[in-house]
Specification:
This protein has helices at 2-63, 66-156. It is rod-shaped, with a radius of gyration of 42 Å. The chain starts with a helix and ends in a 19-residue tail after the last helix. By secondary structure, it is an all-alpha fold.
């Protein structure tokens, strides 16, 4: 009975541990996705601002002389490069965040697995101790029953004669 309870509790603990690990992994995944989305939005905003600035610069450049056009073109290229670099850095940060989330998920999974293993080992150990105790108790009960049978036989005069090789039963006088 105790072994069944321990096995049940170990299974229950394992299930709870796995559920908690899954919840933590989902939470980490959601956080990583939110960080990725936020980074993407920042890159899009920077890109739109760059596009707006580039268009304004181009319009003004067309109104001015060739020298002004050259300066505007240089400004446009610089702005593009900076936006590209900003988007690249944002993507790298999102990748790092995703990697950290993955590592955290794996660590949590490993810890949950270790906890479940320890619970199973503990249950197995308890089962083995219970089996040994039950076997010992059974032997004691068997010996007690045999003693009771011998006592009843002795009382009824059907006791075994201990000195002979072959058991001989005889009835005792009750005088």
């Amino acid at each position: 009975m105790a072994s069944h309870k321990q096995s049940y509790r170990a299974g229950e603990t394992k299930g709870q541990t796995e559920e908690k690990a899954n919840q933590m992994m989902e939470s980490l995944g959601e956080k990583a996705q939110a960080a990725k989305d936020k980074t993407y939005q920042a890159a899009q905003t920077a890109k739109e601002k760059t596009r707006g600035a580039t268009q304004a610069t181009t319009h003004k450049a067309q109104e001015k002389t060739g020298v002004t056009k050259d300066k505007a073109w240089e400004s446009k290229e610089t702005t593009k490069d900076r936006a590209s670099q900003a988007a690249q850095r944002a993507g790298e940060k999102a990748g790092v965040a995703k990697d950290k989330a993955w590592e955290s998920k794996e660590t949590t999974k490993d810890r949950a697995s270790e906890a479940a293993q320890r619970a199973g080992d503990s249950a197995e150990s308890g089962k083995e101790r219970s089996e040994g105790f039950l076997q010992q108790t059974g032997e004691q009960m068997k010996n007690m029953a045999q003693g009771a049978v011998d006592t009843v036989k002795g009382t009824l005069g059907l006791a075994k004669d201990d000195e002979e090789d072959e058991p001989v039963y005889h009835k005792r006088d009750r005088n």
